[in-house]
Design a protein that fits this description.
The protein is mainly beta. It contains 3 helices and 14 strands. 11% of the residues lie in helices and 45% in strands.
Length: 317
Amino acid sequence: MSYEAHPYKAGRSAVRYGSHFGRILAVILLAIIVTGAGKNRASAQSLNWEGQDGIFVTPLAYAVPSADKGFGRPVVAYHYLDAGEVLGGFHQVSVTMGAFNRIEFGYTRNLHREGGTAGLSKLWSSGFNAFHGKLNLLSERRTWRPALSIGFVARTQVQNVGGVIRDKETNNADFYVVATKTVTQIRNLPPLVFNVGFKATNASLLGLAGNAPAYQGRLFGAVAFALKGPGRSTILLGSEVLQQPRSVQDLPTAVVPTTITYAVRIFPGGALPLHGWGVESPRLTIDLGVAQVASNILPGVNLQARHQFAFGISYGF
């Protein structure tokens, strides 16, 4: 079983790719210039796949650090997912800022390297935009009270799967609520991080598989713990679960499974989240992970993306 895709002209793709990358650099440079004169020194924060303060694919309730009465310095990140021969490779470049010690907002550009499977790989385009924002409603306390936040992700210029079939750009979005708690009160145990949330979304695989037919409520969660690594480093080990809308727009019989990730976060300069992940002192963090994405979504259609390597690096100015 195969699907005919509208081919892209090589020249047009190269121009669009270069133009998008130029915009990314301009946004990052502008953010650095705007905040460079500020007196507030923000500690680094680890950004997730879409530029949120988070793990790999799920957001945390913490916000990127900033002053109580102003803006923080930008945090930039790069992520890569090797999604296999069918889906290809996905690059993400992000810039995120905090404000008033309660808000975070940012931009991510998705850049796609086409896979090598005839017919199927043409269902993915060159990339799309993602804009995100988060508002912290409750701050975490040293008691058992978690941090609580609401947020959104808005994606534009999405032309994956259904967008290619229709030869048009589409949009999709997430609206979520999330609670996060770092537990340090249990004796003889390392710091533990628990994260749970709910979102309404019409995106399939965070936009990587285009759109879902309609908005659906989906759950997500994560658990992680911290260990002392070699030298001054700290290592966080964790796993995430992210429910996906079961169907894909224009592929009504396709079934998309829940996404599961296994992640390792390395702080080369050392940090234990004793006050929550909202207080991370090192500027640099490195993420390594394996993502279970999708395999057989239709009879005879195997996306071959069940155990895929992912990498990320975040740097706070």
